[in-house]
Amino acid sequence: MAETLRIALAQTNTTVGDFKGNCRKIIEYINKAKNTGAEIVLFPELTIPSYFPEDLLLKKRFVQDNLKYLDGLAAKVRDIIAIVGFVDLDEKTGNTHNAAAILNQGKIAAVYHKICLPNYSVFDEKRYFVPGDRPMVFDCNGSKIGLNICEDIWVPDGVTECQAFAGDAEVILSLSASPYHKEKRKIRVEIGATRASFTRAIVVYLNLVGGQDGLIFDGNSFIVDHRGELICECAQFIEDFAVADLDLAAVRQFRKEDATYHYDKKAYKSLYQPELVSLSPHVRKKNLPDATATCKVPLSHLEEIYQALVLGTRDYVRKNGFAKVVIGLSGGIDSALTAAIAVEALGRENVIGILMPSDISSEGSVNDSLDLASNLNIETKTIPISQALDIYLTLLKGTFEDRPVDSTEENLQARIRGNILMALSNKFGWLVLTTGNKSETSVGYCTLYGDMAGGFAVIKDVWKTLVYELCNHINSFAQRDVIPRAIITKPPSAELRPDQTDQDSLPPYDLLDAILEQFVEKDKTVKEIIAEGYPREVVKRVARLVDINEYKRRQAPPGIKISRKAFGKDRRMPITNQYQT
User: Fold this and answer.
1) How confident is the model at residue 283 (pLDDT cuts 50, 70, 90)?
2) Where in 331-465 does DSSP place strands (E)?
3) Computed from CA positions of residues 436, 440, 443, 447, in that sequence, does the dihedral angle turn out positive or negative?
4) CA 187 vs CA 115, 177, 197: distances in Å
5) Contacts of 449 (CB under 8 A, 6+ apart)
6) Catalytic site residue 565?
7) Strands (E), 272-341
């Protein structure tokens, strides 16, 4: 019976449907793990197809292709145990399963089917998968190891406890694809530590990294020992690889001396009967290099969010085949932040800024845009819109029947700018990055087919107050004003009419964001928010604006999710809706 177990964590960034590329990466990391003398190498949930394929899973050929690549992969795995996520298919019933394969000695030694399928927030796994019914424990050189997949470890008094108490597992391996939101790292580690300390087992949590549409997977894989102490933590937002020696002898001794463990084991009554799998003996190499497991220093709150936005932008652009992006630079703080993120994600040579001044645009806004572009060292083009606006107004004059000027004329300017950006996208193949923030999107302070026109919304889930914090963070980190101080300090304005500011139409952003956070992210009612001391009429107006602008949000481009509840898959409200919240 081995006293230690050397395990490798392969925190990989894969692409949905890229079976060939994903398997090539898997082989690369398997070889890397073999060179360290690891006995087991662990990969994320659904590694082969990547997470999450959505309705591709309803196409039988997609599932069959993933199985072919699994078979080809298995044949190449020798002298190490590789555990890889894939989609399994029951040919008799046609059911598909979120599964993990244990690859050993050139074959698929065992397969585990995920039991707990999440069906909340951004998850729709019950739409595609049938749950498994037996937790798995496998034997590796006399050591018992539990294997589960993501949600299995999040649900208390379930799979993990069954593996540890009924199956005597000393180590719990969890393949995961856990999407990022603010403070998610802390939550995950606490869950892992709770399961580990209760079961007196080592928990190894291996998470996916990368962007998939609007979801960000931040990696941050970790290991906690049988006391719930963090002993290894991988980096966030980048591919990472770590090797750890797990002290199985310490687990056994701890359990032997812990009377409460024996009580918990005896008292535990499982809903499941674990499946026990024996693998071929693995001969551990001698004179191994040292294990590399360390605990990375956690990122600060703002740096974590910034890196999530950078990764999300980079992966969306690159994985969808674009080389360059184009951004409308208004001289405002939203376009400044979007441009700074794009440069960090893609390189300055791949970001083009377009200035589209009108007669209303202030000299300061034009100069601020040019200063920003100079600081970022990006290419700019200036395309004035006054002539186009005059033609539109002349064209519509008779139809408008001399009605007074209102937001219609303001929105024409935004739509002309949107048309120009999309024309450049069409001609040069550049992806348009929109610049609207979550505060504006929430209350509809944006123009359909205008500033909402584009391919990807980088700061769609970023409150306006957080936009300011991130800009200051960028400058502080760079130790210079990457984003000009004038952009940060001037009153925000759409500049669609003379002397306009956002606060002409909206409450101050600190008040607006506080109310929106309660209403949108925490699902509190108008009455509950007012009871907390917020102004009655302001709350009622803000809630009404959120409700009536669902039709706009439904037509917005996808964007990066960084909050617990983002618009889209997280928050799904009907457009046709008379219910007063």
Assistant:
1) low
2) 351-355, 379-382, 431-434, 456-457
3) negative
4) 21, 15, 15
5) 415, 418
6) no
7) 275-278, 325-328
* Annotation says 150 is catalytic: yes
Contact assessment for residue 342 and residue 476, using Cβ atoms and an 8 Å cutoff? no
Distances in Å between the alpha carbon of 189 and those of 221, 222, 280? 9, 8, 32
φ, ψ dihedrals at 172, nearest 5°: -115, 120
The C-alpha atoms of residue 429 and residue 285 are separated, in whole angstroms, by 52
Give residue 269's identity as a one-letter amino acid code: K
Q: Model confidence over 196-227: pLDDT tens digits?
A: 999 999 999 999 999 999 999 999 999 999 99
Across the range 387-401, mean pLDDT stands at 94
Catalytic residue (choose from 116, 150, 162, 446) = 150
Q: Is 114 designated active site?
A: yes
23, 25, 39, 114: which one is catalytic? 114
> Tokens 């006054």 appear where?
386
Catalytic residue among 34, 39, 45, 144: 45
- pLDDT tens readout for residues 138-169: 998 889 999 999 999 999 989 999 999 999 99
Within 10 A of 568 (CB to CB), how many other CB atoms are there? 18
Rounded to an integer, what distance in angstroms lies between the CA atom of residue 95 and that of residue 88? 8
Lookup result for tokens 């530590």: 193
Please, what are the domains in the chain?
4-278 (3.60.110.10), 303-502 (3.40.50.620)
